[in-house]
Amino acid sequence: MQMSAEELTVLLMLKRYGRMGRYSLSAISGMGGEGVVRRVLNELKSQGAIRVMRGGGGAELTNKGEELLNNLLRDLGIDEIREVTKFSQVFKCECRRCYVSVVSRSINEDSIVRLRDIAIKNGSDAALFLKYVCPQNRFLILKLNNYLDELSQEAVSELQELGGIGCDKYVIVLCGNESYQLIKSLISTVINI
Length: 193
Fold this sequence. Notes:
There is one protein chain. By secondary structure, the protein is an alpha+beta fold. It is built from eight helices and eight strands. It has helices at 5-17, 22-29, 34-46, 63-76, 88-91, 112-121, 153-159, 179-191; strands at residues 50-52, 59-61, 78-84, 97-103, 126-133, 138-141, 146-147, 170-176.
């Protein structure tokens, strides 16, 4: 099933923050006006992915929504996605949000510049592509050929908490200002690997 970046963003926001109303979803996600969020919520409700509470109680993820989210991520080749906080110092940017994704697809080092350009074109302010290398148990920054712990031990500690990380797994870190733009950027980047 094909799902839009807006739908994926709403599902991820509801999973992370729990029950939310249209105005909160709009403000946190950066998707645009309340009308856009209402349309997306209606689409997700018709699929049984969310439950909308009467009387302004907001929307929450259903078991079917959780399953839909997991299937969508798996179909995209994303083992895990999580918001992280320690990368704005790595990028030395004013980014408000950063997302890290463990991907099950192999990233060819020769395509890093092209993938970075896709990520930036689709809404990210910064992109970093890593490979978890064993037996060193370190995150190698692709194309730069140095290790992340040489830039930031705090960022490494945050990545080591990822459940899907393992030998020779690839990691994409995207930073920017709005969750929606980063999710859209992630989908475009992963599809082009």
